[in-house]
Design brief:
The chain is mainly α. The protein has one domain: A middle domain of Talin 1 (Up-down Bundle). Helices cover 73% and strands 0% of the residues. It has ten helices and no strands. Helix 1 crosses helix 4 and helix 4 packs across helix 9. The chain is globular, with a radius of gyration of 15 Å. The two termini are 22 Å apart. This is DNA mimic protein DMP19 C-terminal domain-containing protein. It comes from Haloferula sargassicola.
């Protein structure tokens, strides 16, 4: 159904090394994704976001360290005009990330599993579940917008 997404996602994900994912002190995974061109980065972060939320919700997205890409994901969701999905992730990030915490520190705390709001505080479970329900109501809209974005890029080349 999403042929442009699937091929691009597989190409990006196949280059991620297991040690990048398993070492909480490594920034290689983040650097690799950050250094990707926009179409590849959009494909990876949006697919991961969508799959994580569909599989286990926003709590899973953050607790599995994918929340380290939340800023990029919000930006790219807006770029592909998936504004509702971007707003949901912005609201979730507002619940999870302490206001006074710099994003780099937040990213590292997610990787090391020391972020209180996710790993030691049940107060955000229900608000995140409510946001999950909002996201589920979007269906495949974010992926349809991503596929359209990728098609536009490939048509212009």
């Amino acid at each position: 159904m999403f042929t442009l997404i699937d091929g691009r996602y597989q190409a990006v994900a196949s280059k991620i090394e297991e040690e990048w994912l398993s070492d909480p002190n490594s920034s290689k995974w983040y650097k690799y994704i950050s250094d990707l061109g926009e179409p590849d980065k959009a494909t990876y972060v949006i697919m991961v976001f969508h799959n994580q939320v569909e599989n286990g919700g926003l709590h899973q997205y953050f607790s599995n360290s994918y929340g380290q890409f939340a800023k990029e994901t919000i930006h790219l969701l807006k770029q592909i005009k998936a504004f509702d999905a971007a707003t949901i992730l912005e609201r979730a990030l507002g619940l999870v990330k302490p206001l006074d915490m710099p994003f780099e520190e937040f990213r590292k705390a997610l990787r090391k599993r020391t972020l209180r709001s996710i790993f030691q505080n049940d107060d955000i479970v229900i608000p995140l579940d409510d946001l999950d329900k909002e996201y589920y109501s979007l269906g495949d809209e974010p992926l349809l917008k991503l596929e359209e974005f990728l098609r536009t890029i490939s048509d212009s080349n």
